[in-house]
Design brief:
Blueprint: H1 3-27, H2 35-55, H3 60-82, H4 92-110, H5 113-137, H6 144-163, H7 169-191
Helix pairs in contact: 1-3, 1-6, 2-3, 2-4, 2-5, 4-5, 5-7, 6-7
Length: 200
């Protein structure tokens, strides 16, 4: 197997483990997703997968993480909505995120996939803000394992991009959204665990 194939397989395994772990955490009440954020993640990850694949000239191995994330996000958010495993916290940050997502989609349609995808990365980072806010004030709760696995999957997915350099743009998704975003949630899930003990 080639390095991109190995990295694609490892990244997929880690991401599958991340989503399975997160699903179990939600089912057991150890994680409480924000409803509005969950709704926003569905179209955002779909647009991200399309633009990211187009930016990489539809190279499946390099884009596999974005495609896997898209598929699992749709399934997980569907579960969250159908089984009502969420909390509703209507904040300005969530609606600003939605507006940014719409803007990024319009930009992508009017320009090209690279510009559209880079804007989507801003949106994805913004999607973490309601989660971070919820962990800090104690109305959301999370366990770190799923987020650590996701950050690991994204980190692995950067290896083929670094070995076959195509510029900084393809690294924005796995590094900003993947490693930084998920890593931040993992750290807060550990450091602020005491704040949600009252909602266990």
């Amino acid at each position: 197997m080639s390095v991109p194939q190995i990295c694609g397989l490892l990244s997929t395994l880690c991401m599958t483990g991340s989503y399975y772990t997160y699903w179990r955490q939600i089912r057991l009440g150890h994680s409480t997703p924000n409803l509005v954020t969950s709704l926003l993640f569905i179209p955002i990850t779909i647009v991200n997968a399309i633009t990211y694949s187009a930016m990489l000239d539809k190279d499946f191995l390099k884009a596999i993480t974005a495609l896997v994330v898209c598929g699992f996000t749709v399934l997980l958010c569907g579960y969250i909505l159908l089984w009502k495993k969420y909390v509703f916290k209507n904040t300005s940050a969530t609606w600003i995120t939605g507006g940014l997502a719409l803007t990024a989609t319009i930009v992508w349609l009017l320009t090209d996939a690279t510009i559209g995808n880079l804007m989507i990365q801003v949106v994805l980072i913004a999607c973490f803000i309601p989660i971070i806010h919820g962990l800090l004030d104690g109305h959301l709760k999370e366990r770190p394992l799923a987020w650590v696995l996701a950050a690991t999957a994204y980190a692995i997915s950067t290896i083929p991009l670094l070995l076959h350099w195509e510029g900084f743009a393809p690294l924005a998704f796995p590094l900003l959204n993947g490693v930084l975003g998920n890593g931040t949630i993992a750290i807060l899930a550990v450091t602020h665990a005491h704040k949600y003990q009252h909602i266990e």
